[in-house]
Amino acid sequence: MPTDLKTAQEMMAAAVAARTTEDPEIVSVRQVLKLLDKTSKSNRTYGSTNPVAQKFTQQLFEELTNHLTTYSKLTFLIQRSELLCKDAVVYQAEREGASESLAFKLYADGIRELVLHQGLTQEDLSLFLASLWSDADSHEEDDDIVTRLWSRNLSTITLVTAEELSKSTVGNDGGTRPDGAMSSSDSTLRELLDRERERKKQSDAKTHADGGGSGNAKSRFQSGLTGYEVTDEELAVLAQEIEAERKQDNLLCILDMLTAILASEKSPALLTKLFSLWGTIVESLLREGKWTVLERVLCLLHETDSVRPDLSEEHKQQLASLLNGLGRAERVKMIEGYLNRGPDANVTGLSTIFLLMKPDAVPSLCSLLANVTSPVHQAIVSEALTVLAKDLPDPLLRGLSDRRPGHVRNLLSILAKWNNPKFADPVEKLIRYPDAQVRRDAIRALGLFRPNGNGTKLVPLSTDEDEGVRFAALKLLISGQYTVSFSVWMPLLSEEGFMDRPISERRAVFQAVRATCGDEAVPYWQGLMTEWAWMNRRKKEELAVIGAETLGKLATPSAIEALSVGAQKGNATVRQACAAALLQAQRLQRNLPSTDPISEDSRS
Questions:
Q1: What per-residue confidence (pLDDT) applies to 456?
Q2: Which residues contact 36 (CB under 8 A, 6 or more apart)?
Q3: Please, are residues 261 and 274 in contact by the beta-carbon 8 Å criterion?
Q4: pTM of the model
Q5: What is the C-alpha separation between 206 and 215, in angstroms, rounded?
Q6: Is the pLDDT of residue 399 over 60?
Q7: Type and span of the H or E element at 201
Q8: What distance lies between CA 338 and its chain's CA centroid?
Q9: DSSP readout, 363-388?
Q10: Interstrand relation of 88-92 and 82-85 (parallel, antiparallel or unpaired)
Q11: Which residues pair with 521 in a beta bridge?
Q12: Model confidence over 269-282: pLDDT tens digits?
């Protein structure tokens, strides 16, 4: 193979390998900037004390801390529509889809480089976010980002401004270039500026030592102007930007135009029509499931007061009605229609839309929870109701009478998260619900709302037709937190079918009796051990053995005395069981560890 061809192939292979292996630092920077954009938007929309905003701020701090721990600093150069790190584009406005471009915001305020250093604290990050987007009520509202950052004097954040660059001497030996074609691969702008200023200082000192004549003459003949050459690559980039603008989403173009009108229109009649049009847009986005675009629209409308402080009271009422009406029944119905088109319906950003609703949307959201068919969609609505309905639980409690088991179970899961004892009575009614899974969930919820006390109402559940319901009730009774009179247990223990139950279930019942009655049940177990049976002899013998095991676990003086009687008067099998139970009781009295065969055989 010719040498030139072989060399060319090797160069191509190296280029392909370089493209396929992305610098992990660049990946990390992109992730941090993505979270920074989301956090800035949530802070502007909801305020820094809102749980949604605080969640994003915490995620950003953790991601930023991990990056600074690994790479010691985060440096990016700022251009009009993008941010660069190590010559790679790490943020683009059209790619990120932000409601306001972070790159343009920094660029417009005169920042050309920003560096975050290791040691950045959570307080530093909060001050930095506040500097990026000042509050409407802040006295700093008219200040730019540079002024706000300098006023806070953050040692972990440094920046380079366009003013500093313009004052810097431009050289051909590695100094800064005012055309923005600089590289951050090896140095930052701050380092380049410091180096250039030091070089200029040394040059001035040398000129002064030489008499100053030649240097002054040279400066007189320098024009200070810099020429620009546009390469083919730059022309190609410009062509791509023009093509991207041509292909921009029509909806976003319309929203941009309406935003411009909202910011500048003075006619009251046109503003009234504009707000009506915004209401139509909100409903259209709800029907089409464009949640992220809708979030941008709502964020814009939330900021209208700061953008247009001159709005009349009538227009302010229109705006409030538009924002507060997001959870109206007909609008929630639009969400339902979109979600029920199929399980693959887009849900990105839907949680945020729900959380922007007011508490008066709770009844409509309960209906939505009952009517959506996908478990994924139900989970999103349930999460929203957990937040919005905490102080307004009545619609959820009324929904417990619904005949749809899945809906009732979803409501129970929400009530269980709140763990409020006042829900015990409404939930207790569900122990007679037709669906067995609902009955099981209701019993578990009762264990949260009413974890101790009188357990009489739980005893009938031990005869439920569903095995899971029976064991769920017995599990609560075995906990030792409930009391039940032995007379309540007698109908169950004396029925003929009890002996036909699985041995594990009979053990569980005896444990529940022991935990709720104590010594009150000892005569019953002693009678089992000493009774002489002609009918069902084998099954009664099994009951006597289980009774002996239960008395061994009870380990009270009355239980030990009953075991001693059984060890003398029972048949051979019972006597052997009583002897083993007596040893267990003695160990328990001495507080020695021992295995519990009853617990091992019973079901949870």
A1: 94
A2: 60, 102
A3: yes
A4: 0.56
A5: 9
A6: yes
A7: helix 189-209
A8: 23
A9: HHHHHHHHH---HHHHHHHHHHHHHH
A10: antiparallel
A11: none
A12: 888 888 888 888 88
DSSP code, position 221:
T
pLDDT confidence band for 107 (50 / 70 / 90): confident
* Residue showing tokens 């009150």: 520
* DSSP result, 297-358: HHHHHHTHHHH-TT--HHHHHHHHHHHHGGG-HHHHHHHHHHHTT-TT---TTHHHHHHTS-
Rounded CA separation 477/446 (Å): 12
Q: Which has more confidence, 450 or 228?
A: 450
The pLDDT score that the predictor gives to residue 204 is: 63
3-class secondary-structure state, position 117: strand
Helices (H), 212-290: 213-220, 232-246, 250-264, 268-288
What average pLDDT does the segment 354-377 reach? 94
Q: What is the DSSP string of 62-108?
A: HHHHHHHHHHSEEEEEE-SSEEEETTEEEEEHHHHT-SS-HHHHHHH
The structural domains of the chain, with segments of one domain joined by +, span 3-202, 252-392, 452-604
DSSP calls for 453-519: EE-GGGGGGGG-SSHHHHHHHHHHHHTT-EE--HHHHHHHHHSGGGGGS-HHHHHHHHHHHHHHHGG
Q: What is the DSSP letter of 157?
A: E
The yes/no answer on whether domain 452-604 falls in CATH 1.10.15 is no
Residue 307 has which token pair?
């953008």
| Residue 128 phi, psi (nearest 5) | -65, -45
**Per-residue confidence (pLDDT) for residue 22, from 0 to 100:** 75
Residues contacting residue 407 through CB under 8 Å, at least 6 positions apart: 369, 370, 399
